[in-house]
Amino acid sequence: MSEFQYLSGFGNQFTSEAVPGTLPQGRNSPQRVAKGLYAELLSGSAFTAPRAENRRTWMYRRQPSVVVAGTAHEPLAHATWKTGAAMGVDTPPDPLRWHPSPVPDAAQRALDFIDGMHTIAVNGDADAQTGIAAHLVLANRSMQRAFINADGEMLIVPQQGRLTIRTELGLLQAGPGEIALLPRGLAFQVLVDGPTRAYVCENYGAPFRLPELGPIGSNGLANPRDFLAPVAAFEADAQPIEVVRKFGGSLWRTRVAASPFNVVAWHGNLVPLKYDTANFMVIGSISFDHPDPSIFTVLTSPSDTAGTANCDFVIFPPRWMVMEDTFRPPWYHRNVMSEFMGLVQGQYDAKPEGFKPGGMSLHNAMVPHGPDAEAFDKASNAPLAPHKLDHTLAFMFESRWRFRCTEFALRGGALDAGYAGCWAPLADHFEG
User: Fold this and answer.
1) Is position 290 annotated as part of the catalytic site?
2) Structural domain range at position 390
3) Which one of 78, 114, 341, 391 counts the least CB within 10 Å of its CB?
4) 122 near 397, Cβ under 8 Å?
């Protein structure tokens, strides 16, 4: 079987088997599963959640997840992975920006996906199932262990290097311009092909879903068919492996006799997914002025307040700018929502020089921000002919909760101390 085969659709009830004749017919958990396998259910929602929001997957595996060998879980220290607002530090109400952090040389410091996790900003509370963490991953070697996150799902945005992600349900591959969404509680392993940098949103709240389209209609933004789930694939010669679990903001490890990657068949709708942002159908103005940036929402994690997200995942991809008599970059702005931003590739139109691929910025609730002086001058005097913003991809994790930065973010050396200076040349030209 080819390693990278995919099923298409977001929220679909998928069925996949690596060995024909494995899946039970008409029964989820028969008295005896075919081929000597075990039935196991992974629930991503309460049993009584509404049908449209109920997420679960039945797995048929060589050994169940309860099979462990050796000792019980023991703590695993991690200096730079933080969870929830309580693990942040006092953060000033300033616009903040970070230069790209280099990936360490593997000969000097070997870092896999877990070791290389550096939390930049946190909010909410994983136990209360609210909020997110925004992380930067700097990795230079593949994982030799498996990881299970009980605190939240993980949205991975690769910026440098290509990731192969082995999951219990099969294999995904994602590189810059693509994203991977890994459900809470699912075992996975990240393999890299060299120095790797990625952004990660660890979502403690409601699972990401596609946003409603409202007056846009039935087509637009991210289409369900463009999200790809893996087909069933299992390790033929499964060996004992270390498993790391994130549980209540702490990391724990143990050795297991049964590799978690032993699922021969599965069916359900709680699945890992990949998505190519080149398939995003951009909506924009063709007359004047700007629609709100919410039209760039790929995925949303709703909160208990309608229309106010726990987290929106928003992208700014290549797109045409055609509006007349309009200042085309983002306007100067203060927002009740908090905005963590990253640049995957190219140039961001509001910050043509200071915001580099691999960099980050944070504009917390009601912190003013907008185009730098260079972008303002250029956009104020440019001929307003149709123009395509090309070879660019920025994104935003936008949350209703205020972010607290981590000690690493504020003291780790990448913070741009001169960021606010980009607005200093914006003089008072009032002619009244």
Assistant:
1) yes
2) 280-414
3) 391
4) no
